Each structure stands twice: as C-alpha cells, then as structure tokens.
Amino acid sequence: MHLNRSARNPNFSSLVYKTNDDYSFVQFPVSHVLENRLIRIPKDPYYRLTDKDCPEVVGSCNGLICLRGDSTDETTNDIKVWFRLWNPATRTISDRLGSDDTYDWKYSKFVFCYDDSTGIYKVVALTAEYTQWITNVRVLSLSDNVWRIIPSFPVVPFPVGPRVDDGVYFSSTINWRAYDIALKFVIISLDLVTETYTQMLPPPGFEDVVHATSGVCVLMNSFCFYHDFNETDLVIWQMTEFGDEKSWTQFLKFSYNNIPMIYGSGRYYLRLTPVYLSENGDTLAFTNSLQDRAIIYNRRTNKARITRINTKISWSSIKDYVESLVSTS
C-alpha cells in the first residue's frame, strides 16, 4: 500500500464506513481530522462498494483505489480472489484482475503498491506457512495481469495467525513487523524494484518481546517504529537513515493518562496506531482499533482528545488518498 505521509501532500485521506453491513468510500482533507471538523458522508450511491463486485479496499496509490472481491467454492471451500482498479475522481473502474482458479487464497494478505522505477502497479500477496515458519510471497503485475512467485520470507509477519498487518510503504519498499523462527522480532523489507527482501532489527531492546501495540509507520517522510512501554506510555522511534539499524532515535513518548477515554479491557489493549504528523511537528493523529476512534495529540500541550467527527467512519480502515486523473487501464 502506498503510504504518502509527506507534510507537503497531506490533502486527502480515504476510508470506508459502514451502514447496514454496506460499505462505501469517503474522502476528506486531513485538516478536518486535525481540526475535529464535521466529515460529511456522501449520499451518492456510486461510492457503495457492494455495487462494484469488490467490498474491500486493499489500498490506494496515486489516486487509484485497489478493490478486492472473492468467492468460495462450495465443494472445496477454496477461496478465489480478484481485484479492480477504481478512480473515484474520474468514475472509471477496471475489469477483474488477478483472478486465479489454481490457488487457494484463504489465509493470504494483500498489499497494493506502485513500482516507481517501472511505473507498474502491483499487488503483493503474503501467505504464512507455520509448519515451516516461512511466508510465501506472490506478486501480481497489473500491467500484464500475471502472478509471479518470488523467494519466500524466512519469517512470519506479526501477528501470528491468518491475519497479518498491512505493509508500510517507504522509499520503494514495503515493510512489515515479523517473527523469525527463534521468535525474535524483526522488520522485513521488500524492495519493489528488485523484488528481494532484507531484514532489519527494531530499536535496541525490542527484539525479544512484541507488544500488540507495536508496529511500523511513516511520519513526516521518516520510517518509524512505535510500541507500548510498560502499559503506561506510547513511544515512537525514527530511523534517521533508512536501512541502518544503528540510526534509531527516540522521537516521542507520552503517557496514556493524557488520553481521556475509557480503557475497557486495560491500557495494554488501546491499540494506538500513528497515522499522521502535522507539518510543524506539533500534532499527531492516531487511530484506536479497540474503540474505532481517532485521537489527536498535541506535543506542545502534552494533551490528547478524542475526535467526535462521525460515528459511521471506520477509523481502522483509514488509508491515504490523493485525488488524480490517472487511468484505470
């Protein structure tokens, strides 16, 4: 998934909201989140995903939305998937892409991305093999609509189980947090140009324990790692030189006590994910998957507040989006 966290281009984010089990696409300026302004849900039925044969948003690149649909074989219980490229700005959508009847995609995770070197849009599919502790990787080039198998990862993306995290795009790579076979925490990085992978270590001291509230993200064009600390604080690190494990630098640490919310099952289960940092570096936006809310934190005042923008918005599905006239073909 192409995640452009540039402070120079924070114009739009996109997400999916739910009404009566029917999902639609909505876009809005990031400033509406930071200012806690009203976000209006479009009434135009064109934005409904169920009418497009693809009820799930995989990701967004350069104004294109990658949608995923699937069906289950009633005899074998195998899952068949397909994708469509959609440009909401031009109201155009592609035919089905990537449909493969020979592979069961039941436990696969998909990432939509863009190879800057070739100008080709790709879908990367991860399927974990826990008996061998590897992750099989396939790449679909949307230019020729052909799946290719590339070398497997010798790790399993976190969390362990059928679901894995969305990949984080940075500097022509996609990155995931993962376990190796010794249950050590690593960051696996897939180069979209060479389609080869490398491994990186997290900040010192975090190789052995992976919290549910840890992960990787991109803030202000910097690759970052965030984690829970003693169930009392959230810490964010920046990798000042991408790929150099010695360049991790602590960027921010703040207490959960500053967040005015009901903790429910405990502070450990807040599941905060940083999604945006303002250009002046003062304001951070987080999503909280436990309560499906957005949280705005001000570094100068050291205070946080919960947004009350629209209860229909699914904050856990938020993705970057920049409107464009790019063709879907």
Characterization of the model:
The chain is globular, with a radius of gyration of 19 Å. It has a single domain, classed as Neuraminidase (6 Propeller). The chain has 329 residues and is mostly beta strands. 35% of the residues are buried. Mean pLDDT is 81; it is low at 1-11 and 262-268. The longest helix is centred in the first third of the chain and has 5 residues, at 30-34. It has one helix spanning 30-34, and strands at residues 12-19, 22-29, 56-61, 64-72, 79-87, 92-93, 108-115, 120-129, 134-141, 146-153, 155-157, 168-170, 173-180, 185-191, 197-200, 215-219, 222-229, 233-239, 248-255, 272-277, 283-288, 293-298, 303-306, 313-320. The strands form six sheets. Strands 11, 12, 13, 14 and 15 form a five-stranded antiparallel β-sheet that branches. The protein has a four-stranded antiparallel β-sheet with strand order 3-4-5-6, with no helix packed on it. The chain is built from one helix and 24 strands.
